[in-house]
Amino acid sequence: MSTVSEAKNVGRASTAGNKITVRSVLIYAVLILWTLISIFPVYWMLTFSLKTTEEIFGQNVVGLPQHWVWENYTRAMNTGHMEVYFLNSFIVAVITILITLVASAMATYAMTRLVWKGRGAMNKFFMLGLTIPIHAAIVPLYVVLGKTGLLNSHAALIIPYSAFSLAMGILICTGFMGDIPYDLDEAAFLDGCGVWGIFLRVIAPLMVPAISTVGIYTFLQCWNELMFATVFNSKEAFKTLPVGVQGLAGQYSTEWGPIGAALAIATIPTLLVYVFLSKRIQDSFIAGAVKG
Amino acid sequence: MKKTLGYRVNIFLFLLPALFLFVAILIAPIAMSGFYSFHDWNGLKEPVFIGFQNYVELFTSGSINFMRALKNALLLAFFSTFIQLPFALWLALKLAKGIRGERFFLSVFFMPVLISTVVIGQLWLKIYNPDYGVLNVTLRALGLDSWCQIWLGDRKIALGAAFVPVLWQYVGYHMLLMYAGIKSVPPELREAGMLDGCTDGQLNRYIVIPYIKPIMRISVIFAVTGSLKSFDLIYVLTNGGPVHATEVPSTLMINLLFLRNRYGMGSTIAVMLIILCFVFALLINMIFRKEKVV
């Protein structure tokens, strides 16, 4: 257990060999430097979102605000339709998560618990979705959505987001469903359950841990997505947060305070959730990549 | 469970929602993009079949200059693979060793991944601002006025300046994957190495890194295909400018589509991107497989 003792040695450097101490100090120096570089943009955003233009543009560029200008936040909310963008992003994310969860859990059930020829091939077919870039769909979707009058609607984003989240959803569900013992299916079958009964009463309740993993992953994908959102929904009433914030920043390019506030409003919910669920969120990113 | 007709119908019903979405939104559009790429089409008139002319124009036209966009994307892939990934690996190795503050560092380094790319882009735009941005303000305060630059406005340095936030944002992502891999190295393997008198460096070199090769393969594939597809940050920071110096295939595609109404040519770029992503993913897989045999 040399790693543990080495970590302790950092604390009581006097007893440790000099070589290890110098190296540990250097390692910590790099880690702390990278911490500052990782945090700085967010720290800067939060501070300048509360500053006056004079402070931002010269008097006090990186320090804490001298006068806390909460007015920036009210201005971002009132003149900037932030609440509309926020609501749109929320609606799109929630419905996308629901569709992705239901569709991928059902498909996974058919491909892992039901026995039929070609289920392996079908799974491989879905896994193609992991490598298909969203660019592949943008022109045809734009044309079809335009023809069906669906441009500038929530559906214009919900449908493609769900489709592009499916492969990851199925991948994660397959991992979780594999952990459920097959005896349960058989017991339920003997009790007179059909395939739907088994799915709804036995499998679905045991898939709760998968819901959070798929949900977190899908949420972050669609909450931050820019390309489809920019192209498909250009009307104010249907803009999501990334598009809305991008538009605001262009419109008020000289007033950094309110823009900072808008950026903060878009970011704080994610950060808050991350503070409380950091392990879960990290795990869902790991589950998505490692099992691939 | 008998394989009756009802059973088969049920299988189909379970697959139906996913299959419908997948075929309608992913598979059919690829075919449609392929179809459009052989046509001259502005989105309004009837598409006119022109064979491979779009592809020829894509690679030869000086006004589209796809090769420059592709070169930029490949350059990003190169930096991503040979600077971002090694640094992420270094961080992961140090953190996974169980140092003090492990969870704190891990969570902080991963945080930028979760923030919307628009927010990150807007913040870096302001960091790079020539008059009031932190970067130039700091340089001036240090008396390094001559180092100040119009970071995103100078054709010679804009590309490098635009790459920095892209590489910065995803260090934490690759670090997290590798960290998870390192944590899953069986303790017996480590102990065996230690009994043989391995130093930390040797443990990493001969036990940990070979063990996490599958994860490194995924990281490399994500880094390279992600660079080929990169859009968000470049779009926010420069939108391909100044004078196309930072153009990547995706920004070129969007501009051709929605500024010049060239749907056929936009589809051609989309098709090229799909092909490039698949080819590079296969290539990387082959490289990693070869290494395993040796």
Topology, element by element:
The complex is a heterodimer of chains A (292) and B (294).
Chain A: H1 2-11, H2 18-48, H3 53-59, H4 71-80, H5 82-112, H6 119-127, H7 135-147, H8 155-178, H9 182-190, H10 195-206, H11 208-224, H12 227-232, H13 241-251, H14 256-290
Chain B: H1 5-36, E1 39-40, E2 48-49, H2 53-60, H3 66-96, H4 102-114, H5 117-127, H6 134-141, H7 158-183, H8 187-195, H9 200-211, H10 213-229, H11 232-237, H12 249-258, H13 263-293
Antiparallel strand pairs in B: 1-2
CATH class of the largest domain in chain A: Mainly Alpha
The averaged pLDDT of chain B comes out at 90
The helix tally of chain B amounts to: 13
User: Strand portion of chain A, in percent?
Assistant: under 5%
Can you write the helix and strand succession of chain B as a string? HEEHHHHHHHHHHHH
* Alpha carbon gap, first and last residue of chain A: 32 Å
CATH architecture of chain B: Orthogonal Bundle
The assembly state of the depicted protein chains is: heterodimer
Number of domains of chain A: 2
For the residues shown, what is the average pLDDT of chain A? 86
Sheet-strand content of chain B, in percent, reads under 5%
Total number of beta strands of chain B: 2
Could you tell me the radius of gyration of chain A in angstroms? 25 Å
Strand order of the largest sheet of chain B: 1-2
